[in-house]
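Progress against Task 2.4 (sequence-to-structure conversion) is shown through the following example record, which the project officer requested during the mid-term review.
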Amino acid sequence: MRTFLDILLVVTSIALLVFVLLHRGKGGGLSSLFGGGVQSSLSGSSVVEKNLDRVTVFTGIVWLICILGIGLEIKFA
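C-alpha cells generated for the chain above:
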C-alpha cells in the first residue's frame, strides 16, 4: 500500500505542477504557448479553462489524500 501511495503521490505532484502552469495568468503563462495568447472573440472563461480548473482541483484533492494516507501509515505502522 505504501508503494502505491508513493507512486500516486509522485504522479499527482507532477500532474499538479503541469496543470498549474497551464493556467492563464495575468501575462498569459505557459497556456499562451498552446494558442492561448491569441485573443479570440470568446474572451473570458472558456470551457477548456473551466475543465482545467476542475481537473486541477481534483488532482489537488487526490494529492492531499495521498499525503494524509502516507502520514497515517507512517504513524500507525
